[in-house]
Amino acid sequence: MSATTGIGTLTVRPLDPLRDAELLHSWVTHPKAAYWMMQDAKLQDVEREYMRIAAHEHHDAFIGLHEGRPAFLMEKYDPRYVELEGLYDPEPGDVGMHFLVAPTDRPIHGFTRAVITAVMDELFADPRTRRVVVEPDVSNKAVHALNEAVGFVPEREIDKPEKRALLSFCTRAQFLAARGVAV
């Protein structure tokens, strides 16, 4: 992915669990990442979690770069095998997604919206992706608003082992319509 937006160029690269663990640790333990549920994680915990993801056949993680500097985390997963197994009836072409914007002392207006848009562009760049699935915490109102802004439609609340989640979907057509692109 390489997307030039009003806030600059966003790209992604595969996450390297060993090389990126310290950076990720600072992101996922930051107070703004409370919904990531790793507030008390040790560096080794983060390294172990991303080694597990790297080894998983149906789960991938990426470091997102803004103008070449690490700025966000993106995860892509197959909901038939990861996160949502047995919690809904997946359709062919469903892809699960998580994203986390890195904490910063110098926020850029519109940055998080640009990131989620770039992440969705990346997921829909694969012609096999028909629908993106997310399952944020029901109380995470900020991410619900972001999801809605890029075309997600909530379906229902579900109980996951770690949280009550809002299962939401976004088709390619919904994403393009949210961006004002005729379909």
Automatic annotation (TrEMBL):
Q: In which pathway does it act?
A: Siderophore biosynthesis; mycobactin biosynthesis
Q: Which Gene3D superfamilies does the protein's record reference?
A: 3.40.630.30
Q: Which GO terms describe its biological process?
A: siderophore biosynthetic process
What is the residue range of the signal peptide feature?
none
GO molecular function list? N-acyltransferase activity
Q: Which residues form the Acyltransferase MbtK/IucB-like conserved domain?
A: 13-60
Q: What does this protein do?
A: Acyltransferase required for the direct transfer of medium- to long-chain fatty acyl moieties from a carrier protein (MbtL) on to the epsilon-amino group of lysine residue in the mycobactin core.
Q: Tell me, what's a Pfam family for it? A: Acetyltransf_8
Where is the organism placed in the taxonomic lineage, from the top?
Answer: Bacteria, Bacillati, Actinomycetota, Actinomycetes, Kitasatosporales
Q: What superkingdom heads the lineage?
A: Bacteria
InterPro entries for this protein: Acyl_CoA_acyltransferase, Acyltransferase_MbtK/IucB-like
- Keyword Transferase recorded: yes
Per UniProt, the keywords (alphabetical) are:
Transferase
UniProt keyword Transferase present: yes
Q: What is the designated name of this protein? A: Lysine N-acyltransferase MbtK
Recorded hits in SMART domains, A to Z, give:
AlcB
